[in-house]
Amino acid sequence: MTPPATKPTTIHCALSEAAQVLQHASTSPALDAEVLLSQVVQRNRAFLRAWPERPLTAEQAHAYGALIASRLQGTPIAYLTASREFWSREFLVTPEVLIPRPDTELLVELALQYLSARRGAVLLDLATGSGAIAVTLAAESTESVVYASDVSTAALKIARRNAERHHVTRIRFLHSDWFEGFPGDLRFDLIVSNPPYIAEADPHLGQGDVRFEPTLALRAGPDGLAALRVIAAEAGGRLIPGGRLLLEHGYQQADELRALLSHCGYRDITHHPDLQGHLRVTEAAWPDD
Ligand SMILES: C[S@@+](CC[C@H](N)C(=O)[O-])C[C@H]1O[C@@H](n2cnc3c(N)ncnc32)[C@H](O)[C@@H]1O
């Protein structure tokens, strides 16, 4: 006697089982379940809600099971979908790059304010990672000349692909350990950077998405200031007189960064708060006299 055929699982059943499985592994189990199923069936979340009784094929059910198992181990949603939205654009993200954060949109906003009054400005996104900042600035400030650099060749490949994805052909990519590999005469009106700024022993490194992100993108020595120290010391020599530096940093690093920048000769040092009131971006001018 042949065994009775098992009933294929439906969208509704797959979603509710997955949300149940993920309830202790994620702060948004139902959303994660939907996003991952959308990816498997190649339809948006509205489709899943409109067709809860649709059966999944065996291949879809299998692929979904594998994604849910990875999510259960903590793999970030952005790495499972290879995608993250930043400034209303979808960026390719892989485990070789930091997942762009909404916090970094403050840096972009301030850069765009600065660029709006300076046509043809030459700008650098130092430590570009996925290229989210450089691509956004190049797309939004079409008259600027944009450079993007990183020490990670894997990250630069992703950044190039993101530039292609958004049809931004004007970015010049540089492979460099901070400024070491830059042409000697290259100077910028504006340098923006979201560098690594987490202290080696910070307990956050063992929690959530950051466990899966590249160490190179996160850790910055015993006090979290190693990268900011190098940038403060070297960026001035790469700015035109009167040029501007915009740095993202940890919410408790504003005072120390101010002292570093002031020591290195920058002027007009200003901290900018995020929506929660934390000082997360610092702006400084290189003297023009
Ligand atoms: C916090 S991630 C920022 C990525 C991206 N800009 C963003 O905001 O999503 C920091 C980046 O710094 C790069 N990085 C680390 N050390 C570097 C170095 N010595 N020179 C240049 N880039 C470096 C890492 O490869 C990583 O892409």
What descriptors fit this protein?
19% strand; two-stranded antiparallel sheet; single chain; 289 residues; Rossmann fold; Helicase, Ruva Protein, domain 3; 11 helices; seven-stranded mixed β-sheet; binds S-adenosylmethionine; alpha/beta
Describe the structure.
The protein is of the alpha/beta class. The chain has 2 domains: about 10-75, Orthogonal Bundle (Helicase, Ruva Protein, domain 3), CATH 1.10.8.10; about 85-285, Vaccinia Virus protein VP39 (Rossmann fold, 3-Layer(aba) Sandwich). The chain contains 11 helices and 9 strands. It has helices at about 10-20, 30-40, 45-50, 60-70, 75-80, 105-115, 130-140, 155-165, 215-220, 225-235, 255-265, and strands at about 85, 90, 120-125, 145-150, 170-175, 190-195, 240-250, 265-275, 280-285. It has a 7-stranded mixed beta sheet with strand order 5-4-3-6-7-9-8, sandwiched between helices. A hairpin with a 5-residue loop joins strand 8 and strand 9 (about 280-285). The chain is elongated, with a radius of gyration of 22 Å. The model has no long low-confidence stretch (mean pLDDT about 95). Bound molecules: S-adenosylmethionine. S-adenosylmethionine (SAM) binds near residues 104, 132, 133 and 152. S-adenosylmethionine binds near residues 98, 104, 195, 196 and 216.
Secondary structure layout plus pairing:
Blueprint: H1 11-21, H2 29-41, H3 45-50, H4 58-72, H5 77-81, E1 83-86, E2 89-92, H6 105-116, E3 122-126, H7 132-140, E4 145-150, H8 153-165, E5 171-175, E6 188-193, H9 215-218, H10 226-235, E7 239-248, H11 254-263, E8 267-273, E9 279-285
Parallel strand pairs: 3-4, 3-6, 4-5, 6-7
Antiparallel strand pairs: 1-2, 7-9, 8-9
S-adenosylmethionine is lined by residues 98, 100, 104, 127-130, 132-133, 150-152, 155, 177-178, 194-196, 216-217.
